[in-house]
């Protein structure tokens, strides 16, 4: 079993989940409570990675962070390195690819909070931010936890996007899914079976944990 690739995937998944929780919770709150007519456009952009082929998404990300792009050029000037074929590039790509797996469950959980509780908090003179922090967030904790778990598991199994953006550099961008692909290409089916069973076990645990939330009346995807 390629423990180096597994550890790299775990680090990538952990950092991706942390970034998505930091950026995804405010976005999910806006999607849940905003009354903007054009909100559906933002919802479509957030959900786009669910239907877009990973190689297509990876290609566009690769073009957006290349050394000739504004973002890639700025990063190169500041750090002296390049985003493509680096762990930082993988982190950016994974965050974009797993965005809906955080935002949609969290937004659904925010939307399910009783509006009367929020308005009661406002009537008591509590600010909107404090109400969100002290009322909405605690009541939506199951959705937030499920979004984090789904994002972590989804990043662990990424293949197309990470291959397009990061390539296959041992210890730098070779994730566990790419390692399995290499093992199959080398006809090392024994090692591929062990690593695949490892991912299968993680996936089963994540789904079992997620569906346990659903049995308590929570829905993974928001209904529209």
What attributes does this structure have?
MetI-like fold, 224 residues, globular
Question: Describe it for me?
Answer:
The chain contains 12 helices and no strands. It is an all-alpha fold. The protein has a single domain (3-32, 55-214), classed as MetI-like (MetI-like fold, Orthogonal Bundle), CATH 1.10.3720.10. Helix 1 crosses helix 5 and helix 11 runs antiparallel to helix 12.
Could you give the topology of this structure?
Blueprint: H1 3-33, H2 39-51, H3 54-65, H4 70-79, H5 87-97, H6 99-111, H7 115-123, H8 128-139, H9 141-156, H10 160-166, H11 176-185, H12 189-214
Helix pairs in contact: 1-5, 1-6, 1-9, 1-11, 2-6, 3-10, 5-10, 6-9, 7-8, 9-12, 11-12
Give the class-level CATH name. Mainly Alpha
CATH homology superfamily name: MetI-like
CATH T-level topology: MetI-like fold
Q: Profile the largest sheet.
A: none
CATH architecture: Orthogonal Bundle
Strand content: under 5%
The residue fraction in helices comes out at over 70%
- Coarse structural class: mainly alpha
| Mean of residue pLDDT values | 86
Q: What would you call the shape?
A: globular
Based on CA atoms alone, the radius of gyration comes out at 19 Å
Number of separate helices: 12
Question: Order of helices and strands, N to C?
Answer: HHHHHHHHHHHH
Question: What separation lies between the terminal Cα atoms?
Answer: 43 Å
Unreliable stretches covering 5 or more consecutive residues: 217-224
Count of domains: 1
């Amino acid at each position: 079993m390629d423990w180096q690739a597994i550890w790299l995937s775990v680090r990538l998944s952990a950092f991706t989940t942390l970034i998505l929780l930091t950026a995804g919770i405010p976005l999910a709150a806006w999607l849940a409570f905003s009354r903007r007519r054009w909100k559906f456009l933002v919802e479509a952009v957030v959900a786009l990675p669910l239907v877009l082929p990973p190689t297509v998404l990876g290609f566009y990300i690769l073009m957006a962070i290349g050394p000739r792009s504004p973002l890639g050029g700025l990063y190169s000037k500041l750090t002296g390195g390049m985003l493509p074929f680096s762990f930082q590039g993988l982190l950016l790509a994974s965050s974009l690819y797993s965005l809906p797996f955080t935002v949609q469950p969290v937004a659904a959980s925010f939307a399910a909070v009783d509006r009367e509780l929020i308005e009661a908090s406002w009537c008591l003179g509590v600010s909107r931010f404090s109400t969100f922090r002290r009322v909405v967030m605690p009541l939506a904790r199951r959705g937030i936890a499920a979004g984090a778990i789904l994002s972590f598991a989804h990043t662990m199994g990424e293949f197309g996007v990470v291959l397009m953006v990061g390539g296959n550099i041992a210890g730098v961008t070779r994730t566990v899914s790419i390692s399995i692909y290499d093992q199959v290409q080398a006809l090392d089916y024994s090692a591929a079976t062990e690593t695949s069973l490892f991912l299968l076990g993680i996936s089963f645990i994540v789904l079992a944990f997620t569906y346990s939330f659903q049995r308590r009346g929570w829905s993974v995807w928001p209904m529209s």
